Amino acid sequence: MIRHIVLFKIKDEYKDEIPQLVQNFLNMKGRIEGMLDLEAGEDLLGSERSYDLGLAAVFDSMESFRAYQTHPVHMPVRKRMHEVRSASVSCDFEI
């Protein structure tokens, strides 16, 4: 299994959109074959080192994770995140 974690910093002009961005992620749950779980949420602390929102997903295999990258359900969410983010970091590892 593969765990996919992404943290996003959102441009100031889009910060009020964060609840909808989180919901966009959550709307993918159960709609992508091989995605076993998905969680997303807004940062609670707002510390200097905090990112604004995070995504954590689990895939049953590397093949499923690769297919997710271009899945039609994921593509509009990905496109929007590219528009509103100022930075992101990710880590993908086997569990």
Report on this model:
With 95 residues, the chain is an alpha+beta fold. The protein contains three helices and four strands. It has one domain (2-94): Alpha-Beta Plaits. Helix content is 29%, strand content 36%. The model has no long low-confidence stretch (mean pLDDT 98).
Lay out the secondary structure.
Layout: E1 2-10, H1 18-26, E2 35-42, E3 53-59, H2 62-69, H3 74-84, E4 85-94
Antiparallel strand pairs: 1-3, 1-4, 2-3
- For the record, the CATH class is Alpha Beta
Q: What characterizes the major β-sheet?
A: 4 strands, antiparallel
Indicate the proportion of strand residues: 35-45%
CATH architecture: 2-Layer Sandwich
State the domain count.
1
Uncertain runs are: none
N-to-C SSE string, H for helix and E for strand: EHEEHHE
* Rounded radius of gyration (Å): 13 Å
- The assigned structural class equals alpha+beta
Can you give keywords for this protein?
95 residues; alpha+beta
Summed up, what is this model?
With 95 residues, this protein is an alpha+beta fold. It has helices spanning 18-26, 62-69, 74-84; strands at residues 2-10, 35-42, 53-59, 85-94. The protein has one domain: Alpha-Beta Plaits.
